[in-house]
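Morning, I've got a small favour to ask if you have a moment. I owe you a coffee for this, so here goes:
>
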Amino acid sequence: MNIVLRVGKIHFLHKKKPMENETVMTKDIVEIASTDCKTLAAAVTAAGLVDTLQGEGPFTVFAPTDAAFAEIQSDVDNLLKPENKAELSKILTYHVVSGELTADDLEDGQELTTIEGSTLEVKVKDGEVTVGGAKVTKADIEASNGVIHVINKVLMPKD
């Protein structure tokens, strides 16, 4: 048995067969986004980030809903053009943090460094969690290479 310390938790890694009623997550972040957050999945493809987000990870993704993207549809249409690939990639990587952070790991006042390089502030008040000003509407969607938290708006990095 290997013992790995990651983000202050002890994880025991060993091979075992899943119990009869146990779920084994085999879908990665991109596969889950392709069914639950279709606009995000299309943007990830346009930005050339599919291989990255299908990688080993682990990643924490703050995934905007399709409705969140619809609120900025003209911007989305422009960002999906090939000449805007770098800007689109910057925006999308601003939604991704290295490591697997569940809702229980998020604390009020915490600053998360995105793979884009900027930080997102976490706020927790009355049981409501916001990240970078976006409300987490669905937390802890497990993927084989991380975790997804659905948010109600598209986050834009500061220039």
Remarks:
- Residues 27-151 form a domain with the FAS1 domain fold (CATH 2.30.180.10).
- The chain has one domain: 27-151.
